[in-house]
Automatic annotation (TrEMBL):
The keyword Metal-binding applies. GO terms for molecular function: 2-oxoglutarate-dependent dioxygenase activity; metal ion binding. This is Taurine catabolism dioxygenase TauD. InterPro entries: AlphaKG_dependent_hydroxylases (IPR050411), GBBH-like_N_sf (IPR038492), TauD-like_sf (IPR042098), TauD/TfdA-like (IPR003819). Residues 154-381 form the TauD/TfdA-like domain. Keywords: Dioxygenase, Iron, Metal-binding, Oxidoreductase.
Length: 411
């Protein structure tokens, strides 16, 4: 008689929050009742595909090798029971194969009761700014001294990632100010996305600039690289020096502005989700162009991204009859972006690193006096996927610790 729990079809740990108590089955369905009274139904084909045995999953990669269409027939349940280890055992016909399912994994993937399996990893909170507002700030002074993937590193990164996922930004403080150290810091989250501006880019006034960012003039609220089909989901700006007068940083939650626009002027909102604008960065040696609405919704109507940068907009090429309404909507949006109630303003201190969602937040800066000192930020890009992957790993480690504490190990 086996008392060890079966493997799961992934690398994760799944604490057992409730036990399997009873079950019933028919050829295409297994219905289980848990110790807390919940009832879950699992289709036979779903169970067959999600088994963790070596005919379904390559144990070396934990990726699926099963081809459902190669089975001798539609998988049906010939028998089912809860075994001594508390696992669900199913006899599949016509394969004549007995497979076991980990109860913690089954419960965590209970699609019969799931409210929203695609819900964001952290609650998304839209925010307004104003004179008293400040970014979520965390002391990260020890970050580069921690061991990668250690609990100490996680204690700094976890709240930072939660702020980025929920509010679209975080300010880490107390980091080193050596030029180039941003790459090592960024790698604690994930790989950097290189662009034609380099792996890291220097934001400072320089001769012969190839972007307005590399001058001392004010920059209006914008997202970076709207000229790309897939513009970066994340931007990091790391302050190495800041002794100039002016140059205050400004951040706005583009989703909060878009929602306010949806309330105040639904027609303008609709126009900006529909009309494709031209975004162009035609420098001396590169020529990036992409057409996109300024506000994009997902197929549920939720905000997916904003893409706004007046200085990177090419000539509008819309339907003739839509040109004036497109500009009217744009100007309504531009006026809202200047409303102080949306903006967080702050001054970078050396050692600050601001991480923000570049497809949600807009950033801007005041003009500064180039002769009054030095202002040097280094920046880089990354994808939202890296934040989500890193945060999922944080959650996995937490589950592993819960499993270890409960003594619920797999075989
Ligand atoms: Fe920028």
């Amino acid at each position: 008689m086996t008392t060890a729990l079966p493997a799961t079809p992934d690398y994760d740990a799944w604490p057992i929050e409730a036990h399997l108590e009873t079950l019933t089955f028919s050829p295409r369905l297994v219905t289980v009742r848990w110790s807390d009274g919940r009832e879950s139904r699992y289709h036979s084909i779903w169970l067959r595909e999600n088994a963790a045995d070596d005919s379904t999953i390559n144990p070396a990669t934990r990726e699926r090798i099963l081809d459902l269409s190669a089975l001798p027939g539609w998988p049906e349940v010939a028998g089912a029971e809860i075994d001594a280890a508390g696992a669900l055992c199913v006899d599949f016909a016509p394969e004549q194969l007995r497979l076991r399912f980990h109860p913690g994994w089954l419960r965590a993937h209970d699609y019969d009761n799931a409210e929203d399996p695609e819900a964001p990893l952290a609650t998304v909170k839209l925010w307004h700014g104003g004179p008293e507002a400040a970014p979520d700030s965390l002391d990260a002074s020890g970050l580069l001294d921690t061991t990668p993937d250690s609990e100490t590193e996680e204690s700094i990164l976890a709240p930072a990632l939660e702020s980025v996922l929920g509010k679209g930004m975080v300010r880490l403080r107390g980091l080193p100010t050596e030029p180039g150290s941003l790459e090592a810091i960024a790698r604690r989250i994930g790989p950097v996305r290189p662009t034609n501006f380099g792996l890291l880019f220097d934001v400072k006034a320089k001769p012969d600039p190839d972007s307005n960012a590399y001058t001392s003039i004010a920059l209006p609220p914008h997202t970076d690289l709207p000229t790309r089909e897939y513009h970066p989901g994340l931007q990091m700006l790391h302050c190495l020096e800041n002794s100039v007068s002016g140059g205050q940083a400004v951040m706005l939650d583009g989703f909060a502005v878009a929602e306010a626009l949806r309330q105040r002027d639904p027609e303008a909102f609709d126009t900006l989700t529909r009309v494709h604008w031209c975004f162009a960065n035609t420098a001396r040696t590169t020529d990036y162009v992409w057409y996109s609405p300024m506000i994009r919704l997902d197929d549920r109507g939720e905000l997916l991204e904003v893409r706004i940068a007046d200085f990177l907009r090419g000539p509008l090429q819309a339907n003739f009859d839509e040109v004036e309404s497109a500009y009217a909507a744009l100007m309504t949006l531009q006026a809202m972006l200047r409303e102080p109630e949306f903006a967080i303003r702050f001054t970078y201190a050396p050692g600050d690193l601001v991480i923000f969602d570049n497809r949600r937040l807009l950033h801007a800066r005041d003009a500064f006096e180039g002769s009054s000192g030095h202002r040097w930020l280094q920046g880089c890009y990354m994808e939202r996927d890296e934040v989500r992957s890193r945060y999922r790993m944080v959650q996995r480690r937490r589950r592993e610790r819960r499993v270890a504490a409960k003594g619920q190990q797999e075989s």
